[in-house]
From TrEMBL:
Keyword Zinc in annotation: no
Annotated keywords: Hydrolase, Signal
Entries under Pfam families matching the protein: Abhydrolase_6
Signal peptide bounds: 1-24
Molecular function (Gene Ontology), one example: hydrolase activity
The AB hydrolase-1 domain, residue ranges: 32-244
Stored InterPro entries: AB_hydrolase_1 (IPR000073), AB_hydrolase_fold (IPR029058), Sec-Metab_Biosynth_Hydrolase (IPR052897)
Source organism of the structure: Ensifer oleiphilus
Name this protein carries in UniProt: Alpha/beta hydrolase
């Protein structure tokens, strides 16, 4: 008798859980996972985080090491697993490669690219930047040392964060995270944007990833696109525009 009661209780809990999940899906995502890109860490998301939290979202920030695509995808998948689904997965810059690979997780409702690489199957950062168009700005990336890359500190603000206040830009330059050469060559197997709704914010004055390249990748992904004036660090300089697009991506699927 006790066994039957326990089974009945378990079944009831399962039904409640299923109903809760379905309700959450109907209401859209209330959880956002943010993935930073190269030369940066998760602290740059603070402005976006504050807006999303104020608007009632659960937010996780992945402190990916940018040492290799495999390691960064693993860290992102851990964050997704710990989150209450459905999840909006957001990536800036190289973080776009990470979310393209990790975003196929069944808990991910949509993927959002913020001035980011959005590779197709078999593509990596290395292949996407292999043949820059004539006249495209050249990011001031220093030669690799022990397998890692840095931006020239003296040119960091102008190239990466031209619209960020000088004090913050200087801090970002001095707190750079080394970008592993191995991360540049990590290729995507099945990009999430092929199966998940995708959104893309083009930074119109970006000197790291040319806006034309951003627009091309966004169009190829069939993404909902917004273009905003700003530098590559648009997520720092204009967190409101970034948060607005993320909240749009969190709405229930039609």
């Amino acid at each position: 008798m006790l066994k039957k009661s326990l089974l009945a209780a378990a079944a009831s809990l399962a039904l409640v859980a299923a109903g809760t999940t379905a309700f959450a899906a109907d209401k859209g995502a209330k959880t956002v996972v943010l993935v930073h890109g190269a030369f940066a860490d998760g602290t740059g998301w603070r402005g976006v985080y504050d807006i999303l939290k104020k608007d009632g979202y659960n937010v996780s920030i992945v402190q990916n090491t940018t040492t290799s695509l495999a390691a960064d995808v693993a860290a992102t998948r851990q964050a997704i697993a710990k989150s209450e689904g459905p999840v909006v997965l957001v990536g800036h810059s190289y973080g776009g490669v990470v979310i393209s690979e990790a975003g196929t997780d069944e808990k991910v409702q949509s993927v959002v690219y913020i001035a980011a690489f959005a590779p197709d199957k078999g593509e990596s950062v290395s292949t996407l930047i292999a043949n820059p168009p004539a006249g495209a700005p050249v990011p001031p990336i220093l030669p690799p040392v022990d397998g890692f890359l840095f931006l020239d500190k003296a040119k960091f603000a102008a190239s990466f964060a031209a619209d960020v206040d000088a004090e913050t830009a200087a801090f970002m330059a001095d707190s750079q995270v080394p970008w592993g050469v191995e991360a540049l060559t990590g290729a995507v197997t099945e990009p999430a944007w092929k199966t998940k709704p995708s959104y893309y914010l083009v930074a119109a004055q970006d000197l790291m990833i040319p806006p034309a390249a951003q627009a091309m990748m966004a169009k190829r992904a069939g993404a909902t696109v917004v273009e905003v004036p700003g530098s590559h660090a648009i997520y720092v300089s204009n967190p409101k525009a970034v948060a607005d697009l993320i909240e749009k991506a969190a709405q229930p699927a039609n």
